[in-house]
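1st attempt posting a full record on here, be nice pls
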Amino acid sequence: MTLAELTGDISSIGYGLAAIGPGIGVGIVFAAYIQATARQPESAGLTRAYLFMGFALSEALALFGLALAFVFSNPPA
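the predicted structure (as C-alpha cells):
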C-alpha cells in the first residue's frame, strides 16, 4: 500500500529553492553599495567596481543552479 506516489521531475522545485540564495545575495550587495555611497558620496566610483563584481558572482550562483537543474533532471522515458 502506497500513501502517495510522486511522478514527474522535481528539479524545478530545486531550482526555485536554489534561486533564493542568489536573490538574497544580490539584495545584500546593492544594499551595501547604497549604504556606502550614502555615507561617503565621493567613494561611489571606487565602490562601483565591487558592486558589479558582487552582483556578477551572485548571479553566477543562480546560473549554476539552473544548469545543475538540467544536468540532474531525469530524462523522459
